[in-house]
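tool=predict chain=A
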Amino acid sequence: MVKRPDFFQIKTYEEFCKYYWYQKELLHICQQLDCAHWGTKQELNDRIKAYFAGEPMKEVERKTKPFKPKATQELSLSSSLLLCGFAFNQTFRTYFAQQTGVEPFKFTADMATAWRKVKAENDLSFTIQDLLDVYAGKSDYARYDNRSCQWNQFYKDFCADKKTKGIKNKMKVASILWQAVKKSDQAKVYSSQLWDKYSNLLDNE
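tool=predict ok
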């Protein structure tokens, strides 16, 4: 098992991504980098990515003014997301359902990530069509960082494994395996092979 190195010993963002980091750890890292140390886990990751790329880490205001829909403005595919008063509400859910033919329509994590980026950068050029392209996977304007969901998926797969059927405290055992995987450079996913690989950690369980 490869032990996770100290952050400042890591040379590239690719190497950084091999390891799991808790949000409070990312907050501390951003604080040490003298950049904004608040926000979502993805926003913190974006600042760290910019650090490794040698790019300026943009400071974003902690509070932003709410964007109010303009009731008199007719929506079109060329409408600016900021200027049309976009929100993740039933009005726009109905509109996107009409455009995609998907009913009921559900906004995706990538769409939410794109919307955060649009607001943070005050990107008036980003349109409803651009958001539809994000939904369809035709645009890489912004992608949701699913590493924040890795533990949830790990535990779900652990519980689904027939090998864990007789275990009383599944959460405890899964946590032991997760901690070992999290600190290694291997994929942050559950598999039955982990029982053999980390059998020494599970001897008393």
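Residues 60-72 have pLDDT under 50 and may be disordered. Residues 64-144 form one domain.
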